[in-house]
């Protein structure tokens, strides 16, 4: 589904990704772990198309509807989203003055338009929103409030997952969705990710520092990102080894 080959990228003229290669197939969940400053968020931003993140080499392709290879790096961020990419932020942004419901309905209908589907009516949208909010144990009252404004860290992350459920992406890149979550919110987010994304036609890149989220969302593969490259790959046991021995010992 996703093929990253020798990806190199710079931020403010500073090389951060230095030849990163990764293949993700449909139905797979890949955890990306690594020390602070390794380039994990940079990878997410580069895949999402954030301005200021300059690709200096390599390629990224995403499989299209009919199995054709889409050159992801050629697309604008909204086109990447329409192609089925979702980026869950490490630090979700607050959008004062725009309610969650307005925001999500606009986003969902823009997405549907790009896919050649009819827009959802108000009633259809609310039904969908209620279902996804329920998965994440989010009160509908929260969906009426401005996007993320005054939300706790955990509420912001759950809100990101509600958004993901409504947009129904085929590839989700989740950047430290577990940061700022208490134990209950961690379990709820983990179960939400499984319910929404653990499907044969979807895939997830789960960026995380810690093993704990992986107790709920079992990865098929675990990769260590250090110094802008994948330096080690393995199965779920690699995450446990990292947790007990640390990045330096395992990935040196
Ligand atoms: P991680 O998510 O793995 O902790 P990041 O991708 O956020 O790492 O950052 C990788 C490196 O890029 C760090 O050294 C960070 O300081 C640097 N970096 C990120 N954003 C910028 C920026 N806007 N300007 C300069 N350096 C940046
Ligand atoms: Mg970090
Ligand atoms: Mg980060």
TrEMBL record:
<dbReference type="GO" id="GO:0016887">
    <property type="term" value="F:ATP hydrolysis activity"/>
</dbReference>
<feature type="domain" description="ABC transporter">
    <location>
        <begin position="2"/>
        <end position="252"/>
    </location>
</feature>
<dbReference type="Pfam" id="PF00005">
    <property type="entry name" value="ABC_tran"/>
</dbReference>
<protein>
    <submittedName>
        <fullName>Fe-S cluster assembly ATPase SufC</fullName>
    </submittedName>
</protein>
<comment type="similarity">
    <text>Belongs to the ABC transporter superfamily. Ycf16 family.</text>
</comment>
<keyword id="KW-0067">ATP-binding</keyword>
<dbReference type="InterPro" id="IPR003439">
    <property type="entry name" value="ABC_transporter-like_ATP-bd"/>
</dbReference>
<dbReference type="InterPro" id="IPR027417">
    <property type="entry name" value="P-loop_NTPase"/>
</dbReference>
<keyword id="KW-0547">Nucleotide-binding</keyword>
<dbReference type="InterPro" id="IPR010230">
    <property type="entry name" value="FeS-cluster_ATPase_SufC"/>
</dbReference>
<dbReference type="GO" id="GO:0005524">
    <property type="term" value="F:ATP binding"/>
</dbReference>
